[in-house]
Amino acid sequence: MKKSLLVSSLSLVLAASTVLSTAGAASKTGTIVIRHTQLGEAKQQRLNILKDVLARVSKEVPGVKYKLDGVDSDVNRKEKLRSEMVVNKAPAIFDLFGGSDTQLYVEANRLLDLTPILKELGLSNKFISLNEFTVNGKIYGLPIGGYQEGYFYNKDYFKAHGLKVPTTLAELEKIAAAVKKDGKTPFAQASKAAWVPLMTANTLWSRYAGPDITNGFSTGKTKWNSAPMISAFTKYQEWVKKGYFKQGELGLDYAEQRNQLIRGEAVMMYDGSWASSVFADKAQAGDMTGKVGYFALPAVAGGKGNQTYVNGGFSNGYGFSAKVKNDKKQLAFVKSFIKNMYNDEMQIRGLEADGVLPSMKVSSTKLANAKVTPLVKEIIAVGNKASGAFPAFDSLVSADVNTALSEGIQKLIGGKVTPKAMLDAVQKAQNIANSDDDF
Amino acid sequence: MNKTLRKPWTYVLFLLPLLVLYIMFFIYPMISAAITSFMKWNGLTEPKFNGLTNYKHAYHDAKFWDAVLNNGKFILFSVFVQVPIILFFSLLISNVKKLKGLYKTAVFVPSVMSTAVIGILWSFIYEPDIGLFNLALTKIGLQPVMWLSDSQWAMFSILITNAWQWTGFYIVMVLAAILSIPREIDEAAIVDGAGAFTRATRITVPLIMPVISVVIMLSIAGAMKAADIIIVMTKGGPGGVTDVMATYLIKYGITNAKYGYGNSIGVLIFVFSLMLTALYQVLVARRVERVEY
Amino acid sequence: MTMTKNSLKRSIPHIVLFAFLILTLYPFLFVLFSSIKSDNQAIASNPFGFPASFHFENYREAWVNAKISVYFFNSLYISTLCSVVTILFSSMGAYAISRIRYLRISNVMYQAILIGLLIPGNALLLPIFIMLNKMEFFGHAVLGTHMALILPYTAGAIPFTVIILVAFMRSIPGEIEEASVMDGLSAKGIFSKIIMPITVPALVTVFIINFIGNWNEFLMANFFISSDNLRTLPVGMVGFRDIYNTNYAQMSAGIVFSILPVMIIYAVLQKQIIEGLTAGGVKG
User: Fold this and answer.
1) Is A241 on the interface with C (CB under 8 A)?
2) Among A100, A247, A325, B2, which is least packed, fewest CB within 10 Å?
3) What ipTM was predicted for this assembly?
4) Is B164 buried (19+), middle (13-18) or exposed (0-12) by CB count in 10 A?
5) Which residues form the ABC transmembrane type-1 domain (chain B) (predicted)?
6) What is the CATH number of domain B37-287?
7) How close is the nearest chain C Cα to the Cα of B26, in Å?
8) pLDDT tens across A77-119, in order?
9) Domain that includes residue A151, residue range
């Protein structure tokens, strides 16, 4: 009787945990998990597209259960997927960034080689650019759309104050000064996540130091603390000091940025083309719906290299776990997913419903007939006028350099560091990352 | 002496489940952390032995020392700000005749909520435009403060939140100790003509030193563990000024894919905890006759 | 004269304490009021007062958008289960260490466990993560299930619990057991019939402290669990905040949902919780 205390208590725990582990493990046997980042109001359309695609896939590949798993984009990229990759437990299908992220995971054989699948589906030459997802000639991810970055602006305000879309940085600054004088914030910004202010900074430094400069950092050919880079960040700091950004914006979440524009307290906003859908939706943009225009960050007098390049590319999309190839059903599911997600119909739908620029070579007639908002047309027009595009810095530099730069820009905004000191620190991190006795 | 209490099998059986868990989740991870702390390892590909490089890097990284300093601020704030406040209010509550129960119940409320929810709640209170504090400040004609985004204020704001969460918890502990002091001691002092202040400082406080020591010990342990409140409120920002050792570990170990380096930070956290405990034993515990925790 | 002076003197502590209570409790009221205001604008224009109109749809939206009930029950059962198992194993171990006569081994064990108290849990986050990944429980992978939290939570509270319980059990006089041995009780019998009942106050104390610790735990829950349905309250709420971070009215409703059950439990059990917290461990 009494000795059973120990035994029974142990077996109770074991029994309890067995029940639990079976409950949790149900997801392992065949259920495909799709990690997406389409959360919140602004991304509702993109989520609908994903759901429709999955509905079709499950018709084509019956008997495979699937589950959607939504995680915030930045959290997924920097923590969730990172840690899952380490223990080789990434979902079968997941949101993936091209460039250094993809390279890191390919080195560890975590990503499914898509080259044969694309061939089989006849998609090999259908994408505009797969550069960021290509490692050693093989393709490991597929961009869901293209993006470019530029200034969104309040058209009514520009008209009412007789302001014109600037063609030089000096003109842009003149506008900013006028807006500031008027008691408004020139540039909407919310820098709790450092990639937000770094969008502006990235293009600014590419104007000052040339669109190619970012490519050279990881090879040592170019330096973060070179003179034109310092000029770019000095300009940025000047804007901060003049109060061109909202006070306290360092503590605000990214979504707050567009709200500053929507509420009318800010007049311009540097953001990616993905933000355009918000201004087409009455529920989100309110009175500002349809009243937002778009222009590229203008040319810098004396800047290096071509001044019409835009920050743009095809860096965000879906990747697939290498483990999928061991499971026929899962592989069939993934193939069907690629087939149903990456086609003209969905590309046009993404463009129409959400302003996502196509990542595939959609037939020009279909593209011309697509029902898009004037804002999206403006964005496309800006893209067509540009002589080229450079990818965002974070696909070109390693994670620790990104961290150093992220902390640096926040300190710069907070007035804690000079541009020179900040860039010296970034270069130091870059030197360590480039050297062999890396830690 | 007698056999019933000396059967080796009984001894082993009683200890076994404990030992298994302890070895699995303390001893083994500690050893594994210590070994990988000497390796260059991104967690993905094969690890490579790199000697003391990780530790050297930590030693030369100003950001790591900033993080250590922030843990220090946590400790100093709890010992020199929180503990006196806890003592003050415990004494105050113990001396009132009415509403004692209400005070005790009410101050404890924040302690039953999870830190993450508290972090969310306080981020709202600190919000620059519509947060409670800035609305109050602007109402009385003062300039709003950028609580979490101004590097001057960010760490302080987190410390306040942390204090708000735990003060009541410790008050309840200290209060129980005060109330367990035999009434006669206090009454004798009153007869001797000792005032309330004298009684508090000369009689009550010395008698409850053990529990104060426990509060300090728990505060230090809490300070070394602090991470969740920072992740929720600032993610270490702006520009890393609110990073503590644990968030630094995550930033470099996971986000930057440096597992070996992350583990060397883990080892350093352990070493610092050891040093703190030793220091605490010398400075505080020795003066207290009996420490339970 | 003296009467009023006396009563004034008596009410000063109450005034100070009431100010402290307001400081402690006002944030809750602020969130409660905000949760029924229409939007951020309404919060900003009337921050302290009662809302002009009631907007309970915030609650509906928060309920739909965040699986608060799922998160809550996950947290509740994991925290309870782990606290109970920790206490069970620790009290068995503490009994062996403090009452069974293998002094030298017991001393070594005790010192080893004492060191565990000095290891902050998050220092071992990475190795535990890697270890859990290799682990299987009855043929199922541990990582990605609740077991990945239950095991480290149960183990993590061991040093603290053992040390409290050893101290408590050592203070129990030895004569009690000797009498029981005479009565023919075995070691297990003494443990379950004699020692455990005496130890109840300490057990309640460690249960409460461990429960609060598990209830709060964020780092492991954040990294070891992926699927939304398995998330605990802290992680689920932070995920909810990350998505709806600009709609403070709805977020406030979410906060209210997440603290309401705790408040109710606390209101019902406050006496037991507060007394239990101090009954077993802290003896001035």
Assistant:
1) no
2) B2
3) 0.86
4) middle
5) 68-280
6) 1.10.3720.10
7) 7
8) 988 898 889 888 899 999 999 998 999 999 999 999 999 999 9
9) 147-312+390-435
